[in-house]
Design brief:
mainly beta
Amino acid sequence: MEGYGNLPSEQIRELLDYLAQEGVAHHSGNKYFWLAEKYPAESVSLRSASTRKVILQVDLPDGNLTIGEVDQASSLWLVHPQAIYMHEAETYLVDALDLEHGIANLHPSSLDYLRNLNKNNGSIDRNDRTDDCQRGSKSFGDIKVTSQVTGFRKVRCTP
């Protein structure tokens, strides 16, 4: 068995043996097989590193229906009050965004427009090192990304 990243092979084997004892992996010969129903990366978002989520609730006459979730940072421009939110080809108007409780309240709407203007900027705060690689270079350090809603524009959707 070989190491992975900075972890030596002994530590990798120890971790895999633990997963096998927990029943999420199976050891056969010199290989380990994943057994759990969920894939390990399933709980890792590709869109955000934030663990704070906002639940999207549609207020219906017979109760609330959760249609999804967004990370808290994106909620400020995706589901702010009066925003138009599209989900599975349905249009919703956002009534309220409660960041403290992580809930956005929406209601179905027949509006035929979308709106949102935002500005994103990125800058390098600190570059610890730069290494050459096959098609260019890669750098390691800290970056700063800012996103700001700058206005709204109504764009009429045509069928």
